[in-house]
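Note to self: keep these together.
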Amino acid sequence: MKLATITHGGVTKAALVAADGQTFWPLEGMLGRTVPDLGAIAGELDAIKPKLKPAGAGLPLAAVKIEAPIPRPARNVMCVGKNYHEHAKEFTRSGFDSSASSAADAIPTAPIVFTKAPECVIADGEDIRYPEGVSDSVDYEAELGLVIGKGGRGITKAQAYEHICGYTIINDVTARDLQGKHKQWFLGKSLDTFCPMGPWLVTSDEVDPENLTVKCWVNDELRQDANTRDLIFDIPTLIETISAGITLKPGDVIATGTPVGVGIGFTPPKFLKRGDRVTIEIDGLGRLSNKVA
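Structure:
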């Protein structure tokens, strides 16, 4: 099931999207109440799915603006660094990695978790604003994102998938110079517009998160092409680690890490320039495409 947050007739609302991505039905018509975005129903999605039965031909999706599935998360987006083996190695080689001193410790022994400010989330099709005067080393990172449906603390690996309501695509845009300068990743990851997300949320019953192809193009050049089988720390490990001392809440977003092929991994680095377009595809989750303005 594909779900989206859209702006229709000047009002932002949650919607069910047809399998072909061409039409939609507002959830309010099926639930009998206003649903402003998907974050508002993340915690009850499993319970209300049986009620999401479209009636009629639906409305054309091309006639509305598709927002990020959760346009403004209630808390910071939780992210995982260096979670693919080859990316961990390329990042350590780049000289911008404050988490490793040499190739010998490039592969982390525990998940590296950081966050992005919720205000940096943008939708498919919106512009990534080039941070003039702040950074000149802007990079892209294609990632599988998950949304928590059932909250909890001390979630075990065996229970982890029960707590996920759906999956989406995230571009963890990064200012590499700020990331290196500050020796901590929050500032370099949280500049305005640095978290494209979408285009929709696909419910967890339709996704095999352990076998998804992740691809990223900059303009027409394929830069990243990997599979989530290659994650160093799988999704159950990430949820167990984060929830061990932090209570996860419905609507929390977790980005699971990026594979090899980011701009910093090339010699010389291939940083984003004004006018570039970054396009990410993940099996079954659609296409997220944003231009650098």
